[in-house]
């Protein structure tokens, strides 16, 4: 972490960059938040630890429009979102300075809660295990048990774009990212309906999923504007959360890098990434494998075609 | 089958592209082919004009089935429009089934201007299918009502 | 709030027999905004239209709905009627209660209910209609033809004859193209030069035609009716005005070892050259790469001998910028490279040649003076083998997956000509299929077999191996006899696949014209608009669109000219007002819409946008209304809803949806 | 499609329906003259579903596995692979399935037909 701070200070000092985008500690030890730093002094508050899951690329949309370059610390998976945003002309690559930071998978306090660890005071990352100080004494668990869902389907340790890389990364993949989608597909239509009914009913339309998603970056969301006669600040009818989530998934189809931020931030714990993964799985199967954000030039499958594409027939969404 | 089911008259919207399918529907009409009155046609310039928002809106407002008709791939008036439709709708239909919509409530068919008979047949078949599925409750009513 | 009039047509009994028209009128009258509703037996009749016009005037209607037959039938009629009455024609909507209702239903109640719903949907839509004005754009009455082969020449001549100025841009020093290289043409066997050169001369002499040879298109901007094109005229080093075409410079030029492109490198030429004797213009160019003067600074012989003083070593490239209303692509073809077909020994033996090389050998002006001989030793061949489909219909990635279309016929031609001129020569043709659709084509092929005794064997050749004595062992199989065939040949001729000229790809991207996986330009519609590109104002002539022979090329060139003339005959273009437009406050500038636009109508601009008092530079999509055809592909690709389509807007379609589901 | 045909297509990874009957495979084959079913007919038999005929063909013994036909085929039908696949089907039917490369040196024997060796090497090299 110190190395990151020193490097950021140096780049600020020599004028290469005008601001730094990173993470800052908050009043809880497990909730660092994204933050801009504009001076060496401010950088003393910089943190980078196992809780820094937040994908910073989206913040570059605003900051790359400002004077001077912005230094951003991106984990390997964040670079996919960054590339995607460059592809969509939302970020000016020339106005950014990217330091790839090492990542061995990020953890979340929610997972610790699920593991039955309550009253957390502090968490210590000791390599493969986590030592958690709680009100009820010290507990420990394997690091990977506390990892974010997305880290179990890691996109690899390689930064797709970076001006320099500091720190080592690890590929933490230990599951098939489509396993849950496949499981759902094998359920009956009625069971799937029940599953999503239960999940999506929890939605409180806080819009966190939308606001955190790097590619959900419209200046004005169709659900905030009247272009489709569809203004919905909150769900007026039972139908609307479903409409919102289907459209949300569809609007990012072919652009979603599967960064998992939507599920990470959902206060209701709705596995929103399943909708995105279903679309990714389908597009991979229909049109060949495609990873959004892998580069800044490949065209997304939904804005391309071949003459012999599969037909839009029933039965691809899962069992009846 | 309850009495309600027998009287069930589904609401069905058919988006038809102006150049092929709408003309196909015209031909079905001028050939006096019969298909159920439940089908109401909305004219769009090209099948690629149909936004998933429209389809969801149709269900929101109480439709039981939505069918989207366009030119056969390769015959699009705008050359490539229906190729995009094909990709978008393949993904959308799959996603909607995935969240629990019954199979076949949303359908895509390619109907040329010469295929009046196919248009009528398709509509007959589609309405039959929707009648068999019954009223659309799943997409309308997702939240637990407890 | 709109003031809407609803007019329900009986269409005699066509509608009225199944739909209770009066109930439709009644129901429509109760809809919000409807201030007038009436029925009439024939709304499209003179009297019916008069009713509509007077209601528009008397009640100050701002929109009308006509419940009648299909809009494909009478939308235009009612729009014109509205326009005459002073209402914007795009404030008219049609509810199709005949084809989509009365004609398909029997039950009156059911049909009436449906007609009411269809009327409501149209009323709901017309509430959101806005007056649209068809735009206009000027037409520059000049056409550009890119490529000076037979396709380009024919298109240019036809356009020029109709009275419009045309420029031809040709990258070689002379027009004429591939056809100039051919010896005889099938199926009539007339000499290619004899029919082509008069056309070349005609084009050169035509007051409406300007020819830019040794020139290339460098940049294209603008759109249909108003293109601006930069043409690079390569430095010729010879003054076109002074040169008399005497040819003395070419005779005296000491650098004579450059492979002669016109003769497919079978012979050599001087550094200052015209490609062939009948070249147009008959003005040589200096090939600076091979010219001794340009290489070493010493020589200058051509300048010394030129009595006209036309040689100018100081010339440099010149850019000509010109405006055009229409652009024709006629870039033609070349044969594919054979380096991936080692089995035919093309690189190993001089006596394995392509058909185009054979054309040059057979031609009296060619490297052998028209005498059929082996290029290795100059001896007359006794045994000749033709191999068809070399690189055509080849889906393994080495060649082209398509059929090159012309090879069956020219191979029959070559075989026949050789058997005719040299009856002692045995000719064998290995074929997979013989494809001869076309007028007098099959008869031609059968003549080769029946009258001239050409030996056709069904089966592809597996290998051509040079023998120590310089002859060639051709191993094939006769699939009909089921036997291996081995022929010791003196010459082997390969019917090499053709491919679009390599310049086509770059040109297509300059023109935003679409191109297929084989680099052939794509037509606007494969059946109904075969000579137009999907990009308005760009037209396709000749092989640039797909393989074709001379008669087909000439007919297509004529068709292409007709389309160009049709465009140039207009003083201005009326643009369809139902086009897409982008809301700059919503646009993300993400480029998704441009990716799906088939017409290249969307571009991006950095624009200062005032977003509720906040000013900032943004990347904004801009639709060129002259190019947009209104398909709406962009509107669905746009996640923010910034892109919308006039006449079929998001809110209009949603209003229809709501009305239907009500 | 019969199970055998499917198996052959699966093993060879080739699709005989792509064949346009040009005969270049047979023309390129150095031993086509000695075969009772020639390479192009191999593809044709398979496409027609007459794969049983192939099991007893002498082509399986005559084919040198030189793969000239595979190299030259303009349609990627790969007749040599088809022949090879039929051979494997015959071998497997006799219960002599699956060799690992490590086992080969032990099995080397002067009596062994050379083409079998070449074929095996080609197969395992890939």
The Rg value of chain D, from CA coordinates, equals 14 Å
Termini gap of chain D: 28 Å
Oligomer: heterotetramer
Element-by-element helix/strand order of chain D: HHHHHHHHH
Note poorly predicted spans of chain A: none
CA-based shape of chain D: globular
Strand content of chain A: 5-15%
Give the uncertain stretches of chain D in residue-range form. none
Helix content of chain D: 40-55%
Content-based structural category of chain D: mainly alpha
Q: Largest interface, with Cβ-Cβ < 8 Å?
A: A-B, 54 and 42 residues
Topology:
The complex is a heterotetramer of chains A (320), B (146), C (662) and D (126).
Chain A lengths: L1 H12 L5 E6 L8 E5 L8 E2 L11 H5 L6 E5 L1 H12 L8 E6 L7 H6 L5 E7 L2 E6 L2 E6 L21 E3 L12 H8 L2 H12 L7 H5 L25 H14 L9 H5 L7 H15 L33
Parallel strand pairs in A: 1-4, 4-5, 5-9
Antiparallel strand pairs in A: 1-2, 1-3, 6-7, 7-8
Chain B lengths: L2 H4 L5 E6 L3 H10 L8 E6 L7 H9 L4 E6 L10 H18 L7 E5 L5 H18 L13
Parallel strand pairs in B: 1-2, 1-3, 3-4
Helix pairs in contact in B: 2-5
Chain D lengths: L2 H10 L11 H5 L10 H9 L3 H5 L3 H4 L5 H5 L6 H15 L10 H4 L6 H12 L1
Protein traits:
heterotetramer; B: 146 residues; alpha/beta; Rossmann fold; 5 helices; globular; C: 662 residues; FAD/NAD(P)-binding domain; Alpha-Beta Plaits; 5-stranded parallel beta sheet; 34 strands; elongated
What is this structure, in a nutshell?
The complex is a heterotetramer of chains A (320), B (146), C (662) and D (126). Chain A has 320 residues and is α/β, with parallel strands linked by helices.
Word description of this protein:
The complex is a heterotetramer of chains A (320), B (146), C (662) and D (126). Chain B has a single domain (8-133), classed as 3-Layer(aba) Sandwich (Rossmann fold), CATH 3.40.50. Chain B contains 5 helices and 4 strands; from the N terminus they run αβαβαβαβα. Chain B has helices at residues 3-6, 21-30, 52-60, 81-98, 116-133; strands at 12-17, 39-44, 65-70, 106-110. Chain B starts with a helix and ends in a 13-residue tail after the last helix. Chain C is elongated. Chain D has 9 helices and no strands. Chain D starts with a helix and ends with a helix. The model of chain D has no long low-confidence stretch (mean pLDDT 83). Chains in contact: A-B, A-C, B-C, C-D. Chains A and B meet through helix 5, helix 6, helix 8 and helix 10 of A and helix 3 and helix 4 of B.
């Amino acid at each position: 972490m110190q190395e990151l701070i020193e490097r950021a200070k140096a780049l600020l000092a020599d004028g290469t960059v005008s601001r730094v985008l990173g993470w800052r500690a908050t009043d809880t030890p497990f909730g660092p938040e994204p933050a801009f730093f504009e001076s060496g002094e401010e950088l003393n508050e910089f943190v980078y630890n196992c809780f820094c899951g937040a994908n910073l690329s989206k913040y570059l949309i605003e900051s790359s429009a400002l004077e001077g370059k912005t230094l951003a610390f991106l984990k390997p998976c964040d670079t996919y979102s960054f590339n995607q945003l460059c592809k969509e002309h939302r970020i000016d690559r020339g106005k950014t300075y990217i330091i790839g930071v090492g990542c061995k998978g990020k953890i979340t306090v929610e997972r610790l809660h699920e593991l039955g660890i309550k009253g957390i005071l502090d968490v210590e990352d000791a390599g493969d295990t986590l030592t958690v100080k709680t009100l009820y004494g010290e507990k420990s668990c394997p690091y990977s048990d506390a990892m974010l869902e997305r880290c179990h389907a890691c996109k690899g340790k390689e930064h797709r774009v970076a001006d320099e890389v500091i720190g080592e990364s690890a590929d933490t993949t230990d599951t098939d990212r489509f396993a849950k989608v496949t499981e759902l597909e094998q359920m009956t239509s009625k069971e799937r309906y029940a599953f999503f009914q239960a999940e999506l009913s929890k939605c409180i339309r806080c819009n966190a999923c939308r606001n955190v998603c790097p590619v959900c970056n419209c200046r004005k969301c169709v659900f905030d504007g009247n272009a489709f006669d569809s203004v919905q600040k909150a769900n007026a009818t039972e139908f609307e959360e479903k409409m919102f989530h289907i459209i949300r998934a569809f609007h990012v189809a072919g652009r979603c890098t599967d960064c998992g931020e939507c599920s990470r931030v959902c206060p209701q714990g709705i596995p929103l990434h399943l909708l995105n993964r279903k679309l990714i799985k389908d597009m991979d199967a229909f049109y060949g494998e495609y990873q959004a954000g892998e580069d800044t030039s490949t065209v997304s499958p939904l804005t391309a075609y071949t003459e012999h594409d599969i037909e839009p027939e029933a039965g691809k969404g899962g069992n009846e | 089958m309850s009495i309600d089911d027998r009287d069930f008259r589904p609401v069905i919207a058919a988006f038809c592209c102006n150049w092929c399918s709408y003309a196909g529907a015209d031909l079905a009409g001028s050939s006096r082919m019969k298909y159920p009155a439940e089908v109401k046609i909305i004219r769009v310039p090209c099948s690629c004009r149909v936004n998933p928002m429209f389809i969801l809106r149709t269900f929101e407002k109480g439709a039981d089935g939505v069918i989207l008709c366009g030119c056969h791939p390769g015959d699009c008036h705008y050359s490539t429009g229906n190729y995009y439709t094909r990709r978008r709708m393949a993904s959308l239909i799959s996603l909607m089934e995935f969240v629990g919509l019954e199979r076949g409530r949303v359908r895509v068919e390619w109907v040329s201007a010469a295929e009046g008979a196919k248009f009528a047949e398709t509509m007959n078949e589609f309405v039959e299918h929707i009648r068999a599925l019954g009223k659309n409750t799943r997409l309308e009513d997702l939240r637990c009502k407890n | 709030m709109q003031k809407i009039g609803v007019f329900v047509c009986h269409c005699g009994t066509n509608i009225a027999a199944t739909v209770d028209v009066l109930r439709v009128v009644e129901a429509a009258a109760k809809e919000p905004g409807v201030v007038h509703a009436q029925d009439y037996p024939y709304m499209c009749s003179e009297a019916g239209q008069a009713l509509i016009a007077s209601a528009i005037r008397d009640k100050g209607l701002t929109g009308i709905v006509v419940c009648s037959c299909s809009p494909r039938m009478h939308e235009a009629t009612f729009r014109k009627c509205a326009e005459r009455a002073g209402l914007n024609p795009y404030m008219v909507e049609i509810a199709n209660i005949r084809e989509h209702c009365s004609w398909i239903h029997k039950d009156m109640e059911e049909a009436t209910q449906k007609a009411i719903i269809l009327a409501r949907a149209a009323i709901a839509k017309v509430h959101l209609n806005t007056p649209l004005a068809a735009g206009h754009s000027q037409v520059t009455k000049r056409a550009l033809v890119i490529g000076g082969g037979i396709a380009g020449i024919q298109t240019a001549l036809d356009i020029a004859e109709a009275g419009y100025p045309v420029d031809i841009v040709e990258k070689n020093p002379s027009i004429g193209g591939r056809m100039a290289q051919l010896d005889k043409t099938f199926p009539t066997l007339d000499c290619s030069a004899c029919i082509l050169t008069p056309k070349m001369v005609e084009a050169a002499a035509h007051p409406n035609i300007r020819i830019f040879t040794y020139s290339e298109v460098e940049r294209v901007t603008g759109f249909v009716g108003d293109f601006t094109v930069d043409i690079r005229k390569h430095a010729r080093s010879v003054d076109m005005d002074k040169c008399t075409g005497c040819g003395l410079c070419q005779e005296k030029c000491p650098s004579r070892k450059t492979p002669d492109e016109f003769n497919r490198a079978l012979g050599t030429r001087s550094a200052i050259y015209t490609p062939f004797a009948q070249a147009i213009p008959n003005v040589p160019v200096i090939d600076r790469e091979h010219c001794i003067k340009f290489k070493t600074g010493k020589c200058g012989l051509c300048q010394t001998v030129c009595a006209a003083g036309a040689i100018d070593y100081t010339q440099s490239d010149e850019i000509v910028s010109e405006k055009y209303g229409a652009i024709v692509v006629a870039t033609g073809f070349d044969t594919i490279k054979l380096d991936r077909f080692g089995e035919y020994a093309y690189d190993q033996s001089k006596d394995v040649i392509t058909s185009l090389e054979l054309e040059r050998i057979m031609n009296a002006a060619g490297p052998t003076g028209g005498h059929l001989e082996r290029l290795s030793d100059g001896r007359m061949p006794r045994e000749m083998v033709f191999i068809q489909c070399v690189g055509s219909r080849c889906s393994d990635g080495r060649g082209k997956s398509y059929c090159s279309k012309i090879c069956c016929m020219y191979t029959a031609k070559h075989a026949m000509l050789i058997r005719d001129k040299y009856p002692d020569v045995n000719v064998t043709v290995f074929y997979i299929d013989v494809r001869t659709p076309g007028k007098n084509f099959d008869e031609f092929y059968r003549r080769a077999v029946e009258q001239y005794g050409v030996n056709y064997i069904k089966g592809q050749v597996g290998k051509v191996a040079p023998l120590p004595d310089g002859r060639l062992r051709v191993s094939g199989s006769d699939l009909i006899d089921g036997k291996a065939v081995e022929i010791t040949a003196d010459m082997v001729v390969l019917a090499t696949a053709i491919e679009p000229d390599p310049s086509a790809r770059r040109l297509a991207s300059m023109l935003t014209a679409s191109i297929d996986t084989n680099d052939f330009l794509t037509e606007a519609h494969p059946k109904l608009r075969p000579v137009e590109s999907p990009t308005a104002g760009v037209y396709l002539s000749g092989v640039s669109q797909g393989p074709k022979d001379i008669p087909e090329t000439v007919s297509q060139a004529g068709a292409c000219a007709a389309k160009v003339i049709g465009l140039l005959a207009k003083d201005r273009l009326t643009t369809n007002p139902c086009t897409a437009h982008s809301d700059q406050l919503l646009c993300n500038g993400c480029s998704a819409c441009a990716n799906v636009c088939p017409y290249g109508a969307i571009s991006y601009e950095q624009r200062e946008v005032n977003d509720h008092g906040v000013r900032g530079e943004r990347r904004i999509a801009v639709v060129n209304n002259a190019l947009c055809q209104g398909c709406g592909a962009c509107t669905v690709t746009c996640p923010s809803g910034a892109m919308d389509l006039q006449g079929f807007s998001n809110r209009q379609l949603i209003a229809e949806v709501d009305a239907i589901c009500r | 499609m019969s199970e055998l045909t499917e198996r052959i297509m699966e093993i060879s990874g080739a699709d005989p329906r792509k064949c346009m009957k040009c005969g270049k495979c047979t023309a390129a084959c150095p031993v086509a003259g000695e075969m009772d079913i020639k390479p192009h007919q191999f593809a044709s038999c398979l496409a027609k579903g007459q794969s049983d005929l192939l099991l007893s063909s002498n082509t399986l013994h005559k084919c040198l596995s030189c793969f000239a036909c595979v190299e030259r085929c303009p349609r990627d039908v790969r007749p040599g692979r088809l022949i090879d696949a039929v051979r494997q089907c015959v071998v497997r039917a006799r219960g002599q399935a699956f060799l690992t490369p490590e086992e080969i040196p032990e099995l080397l024997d002067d009596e062994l037909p050379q083409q079998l060796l070449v074929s095996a090497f080609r197969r395992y090299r890939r």
